[in-house]
Amino acid sequence: MSKPSQEKPMIDQNGVSVIQTQAHASGLQQVPQLVPVSPGRGGKAMPPSKAKKCTPEKDSEEYRQRRERNNLAVKKSRMKSKQKAQDTQQRVNELKEENERLEAKIKLLSKELSVLKDLFLEHAHNLADNVHPQNTDTTTMGQNTNAQ
Question: pTM score, two decimals?
Answer without folding.
Answer: 0.43
